[in-house]
Amino acid sequence: MNQPLSTAHADDVIAIDPMLGDLDGETNRLRAAGPLARIDLLGAPAWAVTSHAVARRLHTDSRLVKDINQWRLWQDGTVGQEWPLVGMIDVPPSMFTADGPDHRRLRAKIAQALSVRRVESVRPVIEDLVAKLLDDLGAEDARAADGSVDLKALYAQPLPMLVVCHLMGVPEAEIPVLTQQFKTFFSMLTPQDERLAVIEALEAYFLDQAKQKKADPGDDLTSALVLADEGGEPMSIQEVAGNLHAMVAAGHETTISLIVNSVRALLTHPDQLRMVLAGEIGWDAVIEETLRWDSPTSHVLMRFATEDIEVPDSDGLVIRKGDGVVTSYRAIGRDRTQHGDDADSYDITRKDNRHLSFGHGPHVCPGAALSRLEASVALPALFERYPDLKLAVPSEELRKLPIITQNDTVVFPVVLRD
Predict the structure, then answer these.
(1) The pTM is what?
(2) Is 211 part of any domain?
């Protein structure tokens, strides 16, 4: 899997670290390489988009598609089922992998099922879950020997999975197994044969869920997908299952990181935290600046060129037909051309923090409103309950979780009170 990059030399290539040993350094190297960086993605050459403006253009370019069969390395067998990231690209049919008319049909049905009304209706559920999780967080048996608690494991991680499974109509008793399966799937430490077995198990699980709801629909998102009539012919059971799988995976992982990264940013910028707690700045500003500055998603895989694409403002670089293109959201969020010379600074008073952390164009994340809603409930409730919250270890000692697509920590120990 050592094919040369089209139009690139080996010494130009940035190897993406699956262990995320130095995400800040990698982000800086990607930005320094220009709006398009040549990368090595676990042995597979690809392009990484690092520019806000270029990402906006490419995300609306119909010559870049989600179909893995357009990838030259897939066509010639260089990349196959043994590649650790194949399960993020070669996936069951869903809105996340379709293009053109099929994508518009599926997108219309997702929009109908995941309506503004449905998202807002889950707010009381989120509030109740947050209150319970905060109670559990403060329990004596939640504390480690040094008095700290793992805010990620006890708060940021369970909340979004509980919410998305509530929406989908997934029984709460099944959530622990699902959570562990997704951890196994995403982790770069998982052997590929084990990952493939987990993928097969998850696909079977969501197919069974879709069949159950088709036979006996209820007031949940899965049933709404089965019954959705917008945009043409109904979804097949396989499409319902594929969309469920993708929405649960993306819907909980992103929100975990958003909550953790927001708390980390505030605790390491105490003057800004004081402004928020004093009501001088709203929590929406915290959420949007965190999405820009420390995007929950580091890299999104992958689009493929159906023909040669000359990229404007890239010094004449050409994405060749069959090339793979990764979107590096963390680098894009630090783009100085878009955000100014202080793009590396966390600043909730920033006048323009428009970002692309939920995507752009036809494939913009359909769950963005839900993720923002969860964070907008979880963050103020956390600091209202525990206003003296502080990190239990220096921020620089927090290790990143080995997930090549996610910007997350292994643990997030905090002290609740002085």
Answers:
(1) 0.95
(2) yes
Residue 274 belongs to a domain? yes
- Mean per-residue pLDDT, 83-106: 94
Within 8 A by CB and 6+ apart from 190, the residues are: 184, 198
Q: Is residue 258 situated within a structural domain?
A: yes
Q: b/e map of 49-74 (b: 16 or more CB within 10 Å)? A: bbbbebbbbbbebeebbbebebbbbb
> pLDDT-based confidence at 418, cuts 50/70/90?
low
Return the residue matching tokens 């989120």.
126
Residue 370 lies in a domain: yes
What pLDDT score was predicted for residue 314? 84
CA 338 to chain centre: 22
Is it the case that residue 190 has pLDDT exceeding 50? yes
Which range has highest mean pLDDT (93-102, 308-317, 403-412)? 403-412
Q: Find where tokens 């599926």 sit.
A: 106
The whole-angstrom separation of Cα 182 and Cα 413 is 22
- CATH number assigned to the domain comprising residue 180: 1.10.630.10
Which residue range(s) make up the domain with 332? 14-415
The domain tally of the chain equals: 1
Residue 342 has a CB neighbour count (10 Å cut-off) of 10
Q: Verify cis geometry, omega within 30 degrees of 0, for the bond prior to 302.
A: yes
